[in-house]
């Protein structure tokens, strides 16, 4: 097949440029349930619907780009984690993945707790009625103001990240006449198999207190001696977008051995351990994530076994999934603006958003998939790069994917699995207006975070 046979873009392996992609799916109209939210389906007329609402209707009503969030799926995933871990464990949803007041209420209703890592996330959680004792407060450099607010609110735990913070939190709590429940975050020396920027448990990084050189034991020693603190456990988070449970197992083993050391030295058995978040999701059909019940079983078994060996009471386990709950539940809906075929290379498809609504591709070289959702097409697949409208050539949303070669301006395309770390990391680059988040459920759609307006931008610009 010659290249000229596909003027809109090359198809076959012998003419494809280098890139991270496999052959196009046999039928581009089929939506892989692995990467799409639960209620997403092709309708009889060839369009795509979510929560019973057609994407064209959503685009018309709410505009594009927009994050479309499947509330049924979000609740189902939250519930699946809650059920898998049972009543002897706690699931703290990591709000950094995506947080809004509606999400806080869903989590509360589904029986989850919440991990926040800034004053802003804490304020959002409290304003939506999450009971403070179900909130964990994280961060490697919490301000005095943030710590004060968290202690005053009565958060269930503050996760201490440094020697300075041990003293700082104790001092603030004591000043307020409180005894703050705390965990100590340790780095267990596990390097999770993920992108360098989001691996967090190897020692050469900013988070936590190293276990290997005795620093963590020293931190516990100091924290136990302070009246303002009640040390309830040890925390470990080894990274993000992890598929292999081996890293968690090593982490659990090392944390339990620290618990045994603390028991031997201080005669105290700390009642809790938190193994963090980081479980991977499917961004493309190639990814094979674990189910919550498999994860709960694996973690429960390893902690129980290690505790039995060390003759410790099994502590209460908690986990902090963010991406694994929010990620698969939303897609970003874009309208195609321009289509630029480059003979022998690929076709650039420009959409009406970009790196301001999804920075992950530019920042982590993340892989995404994409589909034409406003209609079906039997046209030949073409290799595309989905790019945004920003003044930067690194403004790439989907690096390598296939779309039908009759794609045209005005078509709607959607990028699945954008529920985590897309809206929460969105920016106003080029004074882009951050898109809304529209929650869809049982035939109803409602805006849970509205689209920014030019007035919003200008309101901040007081000069
Ligand atoms: N717990 C702690 C202490 C964390 O630092 C994180 C993520 C989580 C839980 C939740 O991890 P998850 O289950 O969502 O992977 N912006 C990056 C991810 C940074 C994650 C930072 N911490 C991304 O877009 O991939």
Summary keywords:
463 residues; alpha/beta; Lyase, Ornithine Decarboxylase, Chain A, domain 1; TIM Barrel; eight-stranded parallel barrel; 12 helices; globular; binds ligand LLP
Layout of SSEs?
Blueprint: E1 41-42, E2 48-50, E3 53-54, H1 55-62, E4 66-70, H2 71-85, E5 89-94, H3 101-109, E6 113-116, H4 119-127, E7 135-137, H5 144-153, E8 157-160, H6 163-175, E9 180-187, E10 209-210, H7 215-224, E11 229-235, H8 246-266, E12 272-274, H9 292-310, E13 316-319, H10 323-326, E14 330-341, E15 347-351, H11 360-364, E16 371-372, E17 381-387, E18 396-404, E19 412-416, E20 437-441, E21 444-449, H12 454-460
Helix pairs in contact: 2-9, 5-6, 7-8, 8-9
The structure holds ligand LLP.
Concise description?
This protein has two domains: 41-70 and 328-460, Lyase, Ornithine Decarboxylase, Chain A, domain 1; 138-321, Alanine racemase (TIM Barrel, Alpha-Beta Barrel).
Account of the protein in words:
This protein has 463 residues and is an alpha/beta fold. It folds into 2 domains: 41-70 and 328-460, Lyase, Ornithine Decarboxylase, Chain A, domain 1, CATH 2.40.37.10; 138-321, Alanine racemase (TIM Barrel). Helix content is 28%, strand content 22%. The protein is built from 12 helices and 21 strands. The chain has helices at 55-62, 71-85, 101-109, 119-127, 144-153, 163-175, 215-224, 246-266, 292-310, 323-326, 360-364, 454-460, and strands at residues 41-42, 48-50, 53-54, 66-70, 89-94, 113-116, 135-137, 157-160, 180-187, 209-210, 229-235, 272-274, 316-319, 330-341, 347-351, 371-372, 381-387, 396-404, 412-416, 437-441, 444-449. Strands 4, 14, 15, 16, 17, 18, 19, 20 and 21 form a 9-stranded mixed sheet that branches. Helix 5 (144-153) packs across helix 6. The longest helix is centred in the middle third of the chain and has 21 residues, at 246-266. It is globular. It starts with 40 loop residues before the first strand and ends with a helix. The structure holds ligand LLP. Ligand LLP binds at residues 94, 96-97, 115, 138, 198, 237, 240-241, 276-279, 320-324, 360, 364, 420-421.
